[in-house]
Specification:
alpha/beta; binds nicotinamide-adenine-dinucleotide; 11 helices; two-stranded parallel sheet; 43% helix
Length: 306
């Protein structure tokens, strides 16, 4: 199948592209390299150095005629979205809607969208959060993800474009970026490997749901193979504190590193964890990577980058 992947030079979508290619699909990557890296691009993929906001996207659709679109291109920093909501809106909402217009015009069979769980549900009423949990998007980044989910529903009901919105938990693994939603893993790895002191924000008891990038890529492959339209959480159902992440990474990299705490980040979410029951039922997906092994692989990646 011909698959167009936006953001395919980035962390998550480069793993998605690799897996799709390994499974015999024909992959076209569109990335403006604003945050992605050329070395992440699978050499067997066709690559267009372009923004999803560019007019040339129309030519790319005409030339490549993708059957499926997997959309990961985005401004990914929650903090930057707070500082500059207009820029976030331009890329994350307007860019996505332009992409949907092309999908409609070229009768794309399906679109898979990288949404977010943690940032959409906000401070949770119950744990783990399922897809019916109330939405409390507290940043322009999260508001944009929710908006795109609504546009997807509109394009499905009005233009018959099937979609799957995968609401990721905090994705970590090789090639990850310190600005992303699970950025703390990359930050701790990079600082400890350099011999610098990492600082834990607040008491470190805040929790997140850390899901390995290989498991996330597999969720995209299953979403491609299953005819299911709607939103699906992709997380582990396990809450892990920032202190635990610190201790695990420290044990592989620099066991003598002292545990140093700084002030808590104002407004930082306290607990976040996603239920994957729907993913199990409708996609047959389950997380398979144990946290310790996933963190080891991430540390090894950053060690080789040194
Ligand atoms: P990333 O920055 O590594 O990947 C995003 C890619 O999009 C980059 O290669 C960047 O160059 C590209 N890009 C940005 N703006 C573009 C534009 N206008 N046109 C074309 N390409 C553009 O980030 P990531 O962590 O791999 O995130 C991928 C997607 O998954 C994003 O949509 C993000 O919001 C979503 N997501 C990530 C997490 C996480 O924990 N990392 C959690 C939930 C959702």
């Amino acid at each position: 199948m011909k698959i167009l992947i936006t953001g395919g030079a980035g962390f998550i979508a480069s793993h998605v592209a690799d897996l799709m290619i390994d499974n015999g699909h024909d992959v076209v990557i569109v990335d403006d390299l604003s945050n992605g890296k050329k070395e992440n691009i699978n050499p067997r993929a066709a690559f267009y150095h372009a923004s999803i906001l560019d007019r040339t996207l129309a030519d790319i659709f005409r030339e490549e005629k993708p059957e499926v679109v997997i959309h990961h291109a985005a401004q990914i920093s929650v903090r930057d979205s707070v500082k500059d909501p207009l820029r976030d809106m331009e890329i994350n909402i307007k860019g996505s809607v332009q992409l949907l217009e092309h999908c409609k015009d070229h009768q794309v069979k399906k679109i898979i969208f990288s949404s977010t769980g943690g940032a959409l549900y906000g401070e949770q009423d119950y744990f783990p959060a399922d897809e019916n949990h109330p939405m409390r998007p507290l940043s322009p980044y999260a508001i944009a993800k929710l908006s795109v989910e609504k546009y997807l529903f509109f394009y499905f009901t009005t233009h018959h474009l099937p979609y799957t919105a995968l609401r990721y938990a905090n994705v970590y693994g090789p090639r990850q970026d310190p600005c992303g939603e699970a950025g703390v893993v990359a930050i701790f790895c990079q600082r400890m490997l350099k011999g610098d002191q990492p600082v834990i924000n607040g008491d470190g008891n805040q929790t997140r749901d850390f899901v390995y990038v290989g498991d996330v890529a597999r969720a995209n492959l299953l979403a491609l193979q299953h005819e299911v339209t709607g939103e699906i959480n992709i997380g582990t159902g396990v809450e892990t504190s920032i202190n635990t992440i610190f201790n695990e990474i420290r044990s592989f990299v620099a066991p003598g590193t002292p545990e140093v705490h700084g002030p808590a980040m104002p407004g930082e979410q306290l607990r976040s964890v996603l239920s994957y029951q729907k993913a199990r039922t409708v996609l047959g997906w389950e997380p398979t990577m144990p946290l310790t092994e996933g963190l080891k692989r991430t540390v090894d990646f950053f060690r080789h980058m040194q």
